[in-house]
Specification:
single chain, alpha+beta, Chorismate lyase, six-stranded antiparallel sheet, about 25% helix, globular
């Protein structure tokens, strides 16, 4: 990490300040859990906290090799042996700040050709690309990654979730890890 460009972490060294920051993490968690799409939740969250409204959350692809899905992904999606599965890793960003890192394993045969092309060729967030599927989301795990009085880490929250088509067919497994940048409040 380039220390010259490092952004200050939105926390205080006081016990009260760290308590307020932890409450923000918990509030972020509750906010994310209310939405089917993490991208939509991030757009609303950032708008409410004074981020520029003209810029929406966008994805930046992370150079990564196709990761074999963990056993939890196989189980959650009900994958059969040899079934095709795609992997996409991105950073969701706004105003040059990384808001989250997301790993997506998805069934390509559950998507339209146009959706598959957009995922392969653009930086569009997964949730926006598959929005037309009218999916629902079931969060399997929500984990706060910070506990005061420890210094605030870069990553503060992680969700594991499965996305379902309207017929209840699971088509994607996501691991989303959220950063401390989401605790910034630019309205003050």
């Amino acid at each position: 990490m380039n220390l010259a460009k490092a952004k200050p972490r939105p926390t205080s060294t006081t016990v009260a300040g760290k308590g307020v920051s932890l409450l923000r993490v918990e509030k972020l968690d509750q906010h994310l859990l209310r939405y089917e799409s993490a991208t939509q939740a991030l757009d609303v969250w950032c708008d409410l906290r004074g981020f520029q409204r003209r810029e929406k959350t966008h994805a930046k692809r992370v150079d990564s090799k196709s990761a074999s899905p963990p056993k939890t992904v196989h189980a959650a999606l009900g994958l059969s042996d040899g079934e095709e599965i795609e992997y996409r890793q991105v950073q969701l960003m706004r105003e040059g700040l990384v808001l989250s890192e997301a790993e997506n394993w998805y069934r390509p045969n559950a998507l339209t050709i146009k959706m598959k092309e957009r995922l392969a060729q653009t930086n569009a967030p997964f949730g926006r690309v598959v929005q037309a599927l009218q999916f629902t989301r079931r969060t399997l795990q929500s984990q706060i990654l910070w506990c005061p009085p420890e210094p605030m880490p870069h990553f503060v929250l992680r969700h594991h979730a499965v996305l379902y088509k309207p017929d209840s067919t699971p088509f994607a497994f996501v691991i989303e890890t959220y950063t401390h940048h989401l605790l910034l409040d630019r309205t003050r």
